[in-house]
C-alpha cells in the first residue's frame, strides 16, 4: 500500500494533479498494488474521475451546517474521497478534534490515517482506533538525503509495537525500494510518499521503482 500526498505542490495542482492521479491508477493496476492519491480539495473530483482511489489531506471536526471555511467528512465523501489523512506534521490538530473525527467515522467505510511523529503519539492514536497510522518523524519530512528507513529503524519497530492491531505505514524521506523493504521487515504495511515522487523529473519511474520494494 502506497499513499501519495500531493500536498500543495504546483507540480500536483490542476491538470498536473489529474495527470499524477492517472499515473497512480496506471501503476496500481499494472503492478497490482493499492496506491492512494491524496490531492488538494479543489482537485479531488477530477482526480477521482481519473480512476484512482483518493483520500483527502485533512477534514475538520465538524458536521454539516454553520461551519464556514471548514471541511466535512460528508462533503469529501460525496466528492469521491474514501478516506483522509489526519494530524499531519504540517497540519496538526488537537487531541479532542482527532478523537471527535475518529469516533464520528468509527465503523464507516470512510478510512482514517493518523500521522504520528514517534511511538508515544502512535500509541495514543492507536487507542482511538483509526484504520492506519502513518509514522513520519517531522525532521525527515521532505528530506532528499535521509529517510525514516535509514535513520529511524529502531523507532519504526517501536511504533509498530505501540500501534498494536492498527496497521503502520512509514513516511518521511522514503525514496527507494530498499526504504520500503526495510519498513516491511520491521512490521510496516506500506509507505507514504510526497516530495521525492511529486517533484521528481519522472514520477512514474520513481513510483515503479518504489513498488519493487513490495516484491
Would you mind describing this structure in some detail?
- This protein has 215 residues and is α/β, with parallel strands linked by helices.
- It has one domain (2-214): Aldolase class I (TIM Barrel, Alpha-Beta Barrel), CATH 3.20.20.70.
- The chain contains ten helices and eight strands.
- The protein has helices at 15-31, 44-49, 73-78, 95-105, 119-126, 148-151, 153-163, 177-185, 195-198, 203-211, and strands spanning 2-5, 35-38, 53-56, 83-86, 111-116, 132-135, 168-171, 190-193.
- The chain has an eight-stranded parallel beta barrel with strand order 1-2-3-4-5-6-7-8, surrounded by five helices.
- Helix 8 links the parallel strand 7 and strand 8.
- The longest helix is centred in the N-terminal third of the chain and has 17 residues, at 15-31.
- It is globular, with a radius of gyration of 16 Å.
Please specify the SSE layout and strand pairing:
Blueprint: E1 2-5, H1 15-31, E2 35-38, H2 44-49, E3 53-56, H3 73-78, E4 83-86, H4 95-105, E5 111-116, H5 119-126, E6 132-135, H6 148-151, H7 153-163, E7 168-171, H8 177-185, E8 190-193, H9 195-198, H10 203-211
Parallel strand pairs: 1-2, 1-8, 2-3, 3-4, 4-5, 5-6, 6-7, 7-8
Helix pairs in contact: 1-10, 5-7
Amino acid at each position: 500500500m502506497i499513499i501519495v500526498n500531493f500536498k500543495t505542490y504546483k507540480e500536483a495542482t490542476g491538470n498536473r494533479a489529474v495527470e499524477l492521479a492517472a499515473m497512480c491508477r496506471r501503476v496500481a493496476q499494472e503492478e497490482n498494488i493499492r496506491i492512494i492519491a491524496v490531492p488538494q480539495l479543489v482537485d479531488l473530483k477530477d482526480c477521482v474521475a481519473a480512476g484512482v482511489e483518493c483520500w483527502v489531506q485533512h477534514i475538520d471536526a465538524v458536521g454539516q451546517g454553520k461551519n464556514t471555511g471548514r471541511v466535512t467528512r460528508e462533503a469529501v465523501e460525496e466528492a469521491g474521497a474514501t478516506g483522509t489523512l489526519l494530524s499531519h506534521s504540517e497540519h496538526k490538530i488537537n487531541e479532542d478534534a482527532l478523537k471527535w473525527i475518529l469516533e464520528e467515522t468509527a465503523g464507516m467505510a470512510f478510512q482514517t490515517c493518523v500521522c504520528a511523529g514517534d511511538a508515544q503519539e502512535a500509541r495514543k492514536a492507536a487507542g482511538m482506533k483509526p484504520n492506519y497510522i502513518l509514522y513520519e518523524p517531522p525532521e525527515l519530512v521532505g528530506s532528499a538525503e535521509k529517510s525514516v528507513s535509514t535513520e529511524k529503524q529502531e523507532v519504526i519497530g517501536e511504533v509498530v509495537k505501540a500501534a498494536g492491531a492498527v496497521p503502520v505505514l512509514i513516511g518521511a524521506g522514503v525514496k527507494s525500494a530498499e526504504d520500503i523493504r526495510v519498513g516491511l521487515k520491521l512490521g510496516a504495511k506500506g509507505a507514504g510518499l510526497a516530495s521525492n515522487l511529486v517533484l521528481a523529473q519522472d514520477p512514474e519511474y520513481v513510483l515503479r521503482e518504489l513498488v519493487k520494494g513490495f516484491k
